[in-house]
Design goal:
By secondary structure, this protein is an alpha+beta fold. It has one domain (about 5-140). It is about 30% helix and about 30% strand. The chain has four helices and eight strands. A five-stranded mixed beta sheet has the order 3-1-2-4-5. A three-stranded antiparallel beta sheet has the order 6-7-8, covered by helices on one side. A hairpin with a 5-residue loop joins β7 and β8 (about 135-140).
Length: about 140
């Protein structure tokens, strides 16, 4: 069975070749035809194991989509263990979008005397292993 690998600082993510090819049209709609064509060139390799280079940084967005659909296996470098995609915990930083930013509230007294909080400049999505180590994170919006 052919496999596609992508390595981050904290993990090695492995996906079944057929799953990647099946979901490729979704990737193309998100990042554009040029990036998708470059990925198709890598996937055309006759090798049993295909490593997507770090230069393909937009591939990380595609990885979020694959993990969301419970595809793949992740090796957490901190735990030194393998985890199925369905075991990972989703992490959302600062909200799904600039409109849904998580601004911490409090009681009316705190609101009266606290300093005005600035909204974050960016936010994103990612995943952690069951032990809480970051596996992958991607900035998905900026203000």
């Amino acid at each position: 069975m052919r496999e596609v690998y992508f390595e981050t600082e904290n993990a090695i993510l492995r996906f079944d070749y057929d799953d990647v090819v099946e979901k490729l049209p979704c990737y193309e709609s998100v990042v554009g035809a040029v990036e998708a064509t470059t990925l198709r060139d890598f996937l055309a390799s006759p090798d049993h194991s295909i490593k997507v280079p770090e230069e393909q940084h937009l591939f990380a967005y595609f990885i979020l989509h694959l993990i969301e659909h419970s595809k793949g296996v992740v090796y957490c470098k901190a735990c030194k263990r393998y985890y199925e995609a369905k075991e990972l915990k989703r992490v959302v930083g600062h909200g799904e979008s600039p409109i849904s930013v998580n601004v911490k509230g409090g009681g009316w007294l705190k609101k009266l005397f606290r300093k005005k909080q600035r909204l974050p400049l960016f936010g994103g999505n990612g995943y952690q292993c069951p032990e809480g180590h970051e596996v992958i994170s991607v900035v998905t919006w900026r203000t």
